[in-house]
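DM from R.C. (forwarded with permission)

"hey, sorry to bug you on a friday — could you get me a structure for this? deadline for the figure draft is monday and I only need the backbone to look sensible"
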Amino acid sequence: MAKSGDVRAVYGTYLTSPVKPMPAASTRPDGISDIEWMVRNWYNFTWLSGDGLVEQACHTCDWVAWAMGDRPAASVTAVGGRQLPAEGGNIFDHIELNFVWDNDARGFLAQRQIPGCYNENLCTILGTKGTGKIERRGSTISDLKGNRTWKYEGPTPNMYQQEHDEFFASIRSGNYINDGDRMVNSTMMAIMGRTAGYTGKEVTWEMAMNSKQALVPDVSKGWDSPVEFVPTAFAWRHQVRVRSS
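My reply, with the result:
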């Protein structure tokens, strides 16, 4: 992104339809345990899926973090909520994150899983010399007047096949590709953003890294462990008080 200058802001979107809608409680089979019902509908519970931000839009966090040199954000605030009936699940169906870096650069991420709405998967990078975009139609850079100065014109293989080809080739050659550190960084940025949205608090990187919050319920009785279905907002506002204890 050198042609667009120093990055001052980045905006990423992952706006789509629900991945696995939660069925109504009336459809729950007789005799099924709480744990089994949750596992069958894993996407709708934060302790199993992370929610739509952490499970799906974490890829957008990858973009945002990459644009900032894979440096973790210093802090984040967020807004979000649930527009569709949760049907017993406890995840948001939309959230918007506002990251701040130590150089006062900003990152914004919008995630939504609601049917019948505008869909978009885009990354826009605002630099001191221009704007870069990553989208389905290709990657481009434009100057401050909006004139396109660069467009990717290379091969466009299937991205899933390409990553497998490069990964296996790195194993065979001994020059291993290991993106673990970058992926952990992006995942934690998504988690800290989710925590900010669900609690209404500003969350710093240090708070997220030192958090004692545990989302997994007590499953000491195994598959038949009873689990209380707690509404999202109450559950997180309660847990934030004991997060660092």
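R.C.: lifesaver. The beta strands are 7-16, 75-81, 94-100, 106-113, 120-127, 130-135, 138-143, 148-151, 203-204.
me: no worries. DSSP finds eight helices and nine strands in the chain.
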